[in-house]
Write the structure tokens for this entry.
Amino acid sequence: MPKLLTEAAIKQYHDDGFFFPVRAITGEEAAGTRRQLEAFEAEQGNTIGGSHRNKSHLLFTWVDALMRNATVLDAVEDLIGPNILCWNTLFWVKEVGSKTFVSWHQDLNYWGLDTDDLITVWLALSPATVASGCMRVLPASHRGDMMPHEDRFDTDNLLTRGQEIAVDVDEDLAMSMPLAPGEMSLHNGRLAHASGPNHAADRRIGLSLHYMPTETQQIIGDWDSAALVRGEDRHGHFTHTPRPTKDFDPEVVPFHTKATNAVREVLFKDAEKVRKTL
Ligand SMILES: O=C(O)CCC(=O)C(=O)O
């Protein structure tokens, strides 16, 4: 008996590689989370970026709480079972009128994770509409071989290496996934997806959370970490991440540095250009 999703939703996820929209938190909760993010950005004087954008659950207690949100985890459990690790939490911000985009790619091409069952939850913290550059997906592209990718290093591309699927993607087959604040989409880590620039009047802010079964192994990096968010881990392939008791908890910040350095090494493996930070 599923905990949250209907049998039809579960079938659609497995057949097409994605499902949306699912209400994760209320609109008010999403607005509250956005306020917390924007207070941090105001303090920094900049959009969240670099390593702050990655494994953010190790820096912000409110991201740690979202990563453990029972509704989100119920949906994930319905799709991959009860023993769940979260590998990364990652902000995706597109400013109003910016050219920022995300090229067509498959998440699992670069992450060194040996599972076919990785789920990316993308949680909207502002309206993600066609105009603001919501995600587009290529249905059923999670099946079959991974597609070849090329590194294009475009500075407007939010992806680390500007990686892009090197074969023509038939845009007519692509589907947009608009979300209201507090709603989430779920997609398989092998699914091809992309998003365009923000032509709307508000920022487009999303938080993606990458969940995987505890059996998963890191096959590129020598060391990696993940949060045990539900069930038990009988495999021990990842060091479990500590929980911050306050934002930028000095007990946890050094772990965040180590963990994001490890992710950077995996993401830039064999890349022609390597950034010093994520
Ligand atoms: O935020 C976007 O537009 C793309 C996000 C993405 O590629 C992902 O969550 O895997």
Notes: The two ends are 40 Å apart (CA to CA). The chain has one domain: 7-267. The mean pLDDT is 94.
